[in-house]
Amino acid sequence: MEKLLIIEPQHLSFPYELNKQSSSSIRLSNKTDQHVAFKVMTTKPKNYCVLPNIGFVLPGSSCDVLVTMIGPTALPTEGKCPDMFLINTVVASSGATTVDAIKKLFDKEAGLQIQGCKLGVIYTFPSQASSTVTERSVSSSVGSDNTNLNNIKMDVSKLVEIRPSELKFDFKLRKELSCSLKLSNMTDTCVFFNVKTTDSKKYCVQPNMGIVLPRSTFDVIVKMKAQNEILQEKQCEDKFLIQCTVGSPSTTIKDVTPEMFNKEVRSVEEYQLGVVYNFALQEGPLNYIPQVIRGFIASSLGSLLVKGVATGLLGLILSYLVMKILPRIWSLSIVIGMLAVKMIQHLVSNSVEEWIVKILGVAFIHFMKVLFQTLGQFISKYSNPW
Length: 386
Description:
Elements: E1 6-8, E2 11-15, E3 22-29, E4 35-42, E5 48-51, E6 54-57, E7 62-69, E8 84-92, H1 99-105, E9 115-124, H2 128-144, E10 160-163, E11 166-170, E12 177-185, E13 190-197, E14 203-206, E15 209-212, E16 217-224, E17 235-247, E18 269-278, H3 280-283, H4 285-298, H5 300-347, H6 350-383
Parallel strand pairs: 2-9, 11-18
Antiparallel strand pairs: 1-3, 3-7, 4-6, 4-8, 5-7, 8-9, 10-12, 12-16, 13-15, 13-17, 14-16, 17-18
């Protein structure tokens, strides 16, 4: 049977250097007049990243697949690498352009004839001699100090370096807090990242997904929504998970999706960060007193007390105003009464005048009595609200 795709090379070669990533490319050439779909699989998905791992090749064209090996942390135990790659190919219709449609072509239920090609992995050691010399010098120096070589621990290779190692918030009531993360790309390839949290309603991450360019740094802002209550426990149980994986330089931010961080499909590194609250600004006596006052006012007893104090102050103010105005009211009443008597004298005879003056006098005295009794009750009511 004629091969659907010509695959070059027949094996993948990676320069083997500790703590350093390396890449190798596969060229898939379609010499037929049909659309050909392909799917790349490996026996060690955690050690390699394949981009793209699924797709199709147009008739008479070629497609390059980039395979990146995550930086190894130890020398290989075997002389020959046991890792293998399998490239499956199948004839596809021109309409099968989406990833889901291509995946269905490789299902057994589709009943299509699938061709497979296996590729081995070979390691090359460009700096093996220098590494041997360095290892011997380290061994001799360690032996002279009577120390054990096994106590020397090698740093684990990382795609990114994250600072700080935990999220720290200076806790303040009713204020939105923020903290920044720096993601430093330690490789020569693009790294995609995805930030998750155990409490998405409490925290906001900007941006939660993105791309860190080779040997560069990216800032991520984490905001915590304003809290209305003082936390009972200072040790926060909230966690953040940062997922990282290598990607193609041609990928844009819009192309980064959560599916790219599926550990079953590609190699993904994960970093967990805890959350710590700093209560230094809240624990001082001068800062703690306003919190206690606000808490007391918010309670039912505190609300009743505040209303009573406000009513008492209002009663005192009114009493003060009445005491200041009362003498003027008394003087004005006497003047008005005298004017009324004089006017009556000019309007009526002497016999009627004495009778009217007596009636007006009694009415005026009764009116002033009622007025002062009312003012006294008003003052006593508002000066003692309890």
